[in-house]
Amino acid sequence: MKKYLSVILLLFILPAASEAQNVYDLSACIQEGLMNNYDIRISRKKQEISDNNMTVGNAGYLPQVDLTSGYSGTSNNVKQNFESGETSAGNGVNNQVLNAGINLNWTIFDGFNIQTNYSRLKELQQTGELNTRLAIEIFIADITSEYYNYIQQAIRLKNLKSAVKLSKERLRIVEARYEIGAGSRLDMQQARVDFNSDSSRLIKQYEVLYTSRVLLNKMMARGDIDRKIKTKDSVIVYNRFLDREKIMQGMMSANTFLLLSGKNKKLSLLDLKTAQSENYPYLKFNAGYGVTKNIYNAGTIDNQRTLGLNYGLTLGFNLFSGFNRKRKQRNARIEIENRQLEYEQTVLSLKADLANMWMAYHNNIELTNLEKENVETARENHEIAIERYKLGDLAGIEFREAQNSLLEAEDRLVQAEFNTKLCEISLMQISGQVFEYLDMNN
């Protein structure tokens, strides 16, 4: 029994000493995570790709210039018949051609497709920025939730420590009474069972707190994944004065999912313009400058070299494409309608989410207020029960009931506070205001 008590005391002392090493507030956790979190770093790399693609050359505004060179040859058996009646024959006659030059190909006009491509690249670049923003918003919401979950579990740990301490004191009192013959063995055994039960819950709570700590370190991408953390905050504080109209306005103007849906609408309009570019003619320019050398193995000319410039314009128009041009344009218009429907669906879903979150937010505020009253009442009852138990005026089972009532009330309170905080985080996220958590402690 004494050995078991020593283990419990060590559980009290060691975590308290080690967790003092690193003190974090919410802003510090978010900032460290924004620098190191792998999901965000990957999203930023993808954004770099869309930034790199945003060039006039990728859109097609600039010409293509190639440097080419080549060699070719023939080996033939040649027989020539002249009008005079003479003949000339040769076997294994070799002719060789060497060439090198610079060639330029430039699409000057292709039905505004180049301009459309440039606009598409710009929209894709902005979509990449929005995807990065979405990843950051999700991260801030997740790490904020876990930060306050860690506080919640720390509060539960504190409450369980109190429960174990009280159970230990109760066991001491019962054992003292039993030794002088004023108490029953049954009461002593029950007190020991209750103490062991509370100690077991405390040990399990250490594991829950450890898991939350590991998750926080993982979100911050720390190599020492089980590094001790002490939060600057010791209670769960939530904003009870959120304004629904402000949340709604923020959602309609700054919600990232809605902004991405709007980008998809614009991209579908650009797809239609791309399809419509086939309704116009195209104009291409080409030019080249090079040298060609022909080496002959037969005839009166030994070799020939040409050096010079060639150029030309090509004007064309597709007269018939198997009705594919009209098909592409019809499909593009249908896709525009689909994107509009998706946008409206997103708006409706966000409004439904906001309505549910707002109801949960207010309900949890009311529950929190109610649980605060319950905790005060349960604490008073528990203090009375302690005094009566010490005087021998209260049975052990009744004292245990008062103790459990207090612990359960405290647990319900911290759960209600945490649920209210989660609702607040969700409302801030849906309205595009989740970045405000970066400045909460500044």
Describe this entry's structure for a reader.
The protein is α+β, with helices and mostly antiparallel strands. It has one domain (2-67, 111-284, 323-439): Outer membrane efflux proteins (OEP) (Up-down Bundle). It has helices spanning 2-18, 26-36, 38-53, 56-59, 113-179, 185-219, 244-254, 256-276, 324-390, 396-430, and strands at 23-24, 64-81, 87-109, 230-231, 282-295, 303-316. The strands form 2 sheets. Strands 2-3-5-6 form a 4-stranded antiparallel β-sheet, with no helix packed on it. A two-stranded parallel sheet has the order 1-4. A hairpin with a 7-residue loop joins strand 5 and strand 6. It starts with a helix and ends in a 12-residue tail after the last helix.
